[in-house]
Amino acid sequence: MIMLYIQPLRKYLALTAIPFFLISCGSNYKLVKSNRTEYKMNGERAVDSTLIKTYLPYKIKMEQEMNTVIGHSEVLMTKNDKVPENLLRNFFSDALFHEVLKYDPGVDFAMPSTNGGLRVDIPKGEVKMSNIFEVMPFENEMMVFTLGPSDVQNLLNFIARTGGQPVAGLRMKIVNDRPTEVMINGKPYDPTRNYKILTSDYVAEGGDNVQSFKKPIERKILGIRMRDALITYIKENQAAGKTINPKLDGRITKD
Amino acid sequence: MEELLKINRRNFLKTGGMAAAAVALNLNAFDAIAAGDLVKLTILHTNDVHSRIEPFPMDGSKHQGLGGTARRSALINAIREKEKNVLLFDAGDIFQGTPYFNKYGGELEIKLMSEMKYDAATMGNHDFDNGLEGFYKQLPHANFPILCSNYDFSNTILNKSTLPYQVFKKQGIKIGVFGIGIKLKGLVGDRNYGETQFLDPIETANKTANLLKNDLKCDLVICLSHLGYRYDSNRDSDQVLARNTRNIDLIIGGHTHTFMDQPEDIQNLDGKITTINQVGFAGINLGRLDYYFERYKGKRIKTAAPYTISDQLDS
User: Fold this and answer.
1) pTM (two decimals)
2) Chain A within 8 Å of B126 (Cβ-Cβ)?
3) Which positions fall inside the 5'-Nucleotidase C-terminal domain (chain A) (predicted)?
4) CATH number for the segment(s) B41-97+107-290
5) What CATH number does the domain containing A212 carry?
6) Is the Cβ pair B99, A62 closer than 8 Å?
7) Is B109 within 8 Å of B100 (Cβ atoms)?
């Protein structure tokens, strides 16, 4: 109905547009030259103190929060990549495995990071927010993958070949760099079935040369950062009056 | 490819509107600028700043001590004092990367950009990290437009919060700027982009650039892109965008955190120059491109001549 009125109007507009177009006739400029450069923001540059004034209150408040104690640990968790199993890895993997089960109870086991992804020790005693940011400075997210038999085998081989990685819900004995006596979620590993695995977007995309997650049967983005999940886990323990007390349970041993 | 570009550049120099080039290269360019015959436009840009408010800490990491908004702001102020026509853009991933984002949700990042007088920015995938609501919440702190031409936010909270493009006017020069975003599916959690409709970047870019150059008569068309510089596969990238479009003069890129030795000049579908530039990430660098426009009297020359390019500023 409205179109009927617009049609003649359009013609009218088109006619009046012509003289207008001739007058305004676009640009009177022509691009003749382009020069380019790049400035490095290093310590030799002046600073704008007005801007610092804007962010200083934010900085102070943030640093206070970073110093907030969110939990307590009974033990020092050392980053030591030369052993098949350590407290830092066990704590990290168990915490995230616990968290992911809230969203997907069907997850069979977890390799939420590689050894390289865990950056520093977590101290004995007070655990501050900053400790968690330091151990997990990256913005990686939890992902749940369903893998077919060959990819699961590939992942188990990777864990064995590299002498152990952060895992939960998984046990193995590494013999001659190969996985043996593998148990998943309390049951013997079945090389014919699919498994549901928690990992990170970083690992899944081939980080640290993990190639097992490239052709998943199913891939689920949870939209939850690993660090946030870790903080939730620690805070929940603290709220329940529990300290963090990871143990070596022989989940991965090496010949 | 490198060789081809070099040859092309030489050709530009040879055939590129000698009269115009002479004016532009003249030592008395200042006189020409003073007389209004030559207009200089300065484009400054960042990408993937990722909440890097302060320089990287001195912890032995690769980029320690580099970056920082206070330095960038001081430099931008100094350039604005010297230059008449300055535009400042960001190619997305403003959010995420330091606890500032985790704590304040991007408020400080946007506030500081407003204080530095950014003229426009586009959205990167990490700007969806707190969902559409998370981004929407920070918009009151922005006194610059967010440009997205290939995200249709009609059915989301961001409806009418972004613009597909914006035309800036500087001393008679019209600069058309639009934003192009990366495919969100698989990169951003589904919940975080909700009902956002993703439109084909190349097709949308072509349409928008045509509108800006030919209908709105912009002298320069700039695309703020978060597609990424280039990939091994034939995924959409800035290189793919440059080769398969018309009417884009400059692509200010992001996403791949690419440190380029110098901007890359690619021949677009019209055989004209589309320049791509990206300056790493985290505000480690500030990119700058000066464009010189010559005012012509009388009839407009139908076949636009190529222009001269130098990876050095005029002193």
Assistant:
1) 0.76
2) yes
3) 69-214
4) 3.60.21.10
5) 3.90.780.10
6) yes
7) yes
